[in-house]
């Protein structure tokens, strides 16, 4: 169960970074990239969509009450 959370964080971190880079206008301030607000909006929307997908997927999980499932 914990692996899913860590995998999601690792994948989303790279996806949000790619989304920020795709919307970068080339601005640099204090030797760091300066991203526009639209880039952050898109990155946070991606996180929101992933959370929504995770919420919907919870309805497809079967509760076993700690008993083995009969296959």
Short description:
By secondary structure, the protein is mainly α.
Description:
The protein has two helices and two strands, in the order αββα. The protein has helices spanning 2-22, 37-57, and strands spanning 28-29, 32-33. Helix 1 packs antiparallel against helix 2. The longest helix is centred in the first third of the chain and has 21 residues, at 2-22. The two termini are 21 Å apart. The model has no long low-confidence stretch (mean pLDDT 92).
Name the descriptors.
single chain; two-stranded antiparallel ribbon; 71 residues; mainly alpha
Instruction: State the share of residues found in helices, binned by percent.
Output: 55-70%
Low-pLDDT runs of 5+ residues are none
Strand content: 5-15%
The neighbouring-strand order within the major sheet is: 1-2
What is the number of strand segments? 2
Largest sheet: 2 strands, antiparallel
Shape, per Cα inertia axes? elongated
What is the chain-wise order of helices and strands? HEEH
Summed up, the helix count is 2
């Amino acid at each position: 169960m914990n692996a899913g959370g860590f995998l999601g964080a690792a994948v989303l971190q790279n996806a949000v970074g790619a989304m920020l880079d795709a919307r970068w206008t080339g601005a640099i301030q204090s030797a760091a990239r300066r991203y526009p607000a639209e880039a952050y909006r898109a990155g946070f929307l991606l996180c929101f969509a992933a959370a929504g997908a995770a919420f919907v997927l919870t309805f497809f999980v079967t509760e076993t009450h700690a008993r083995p499932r009969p296959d």
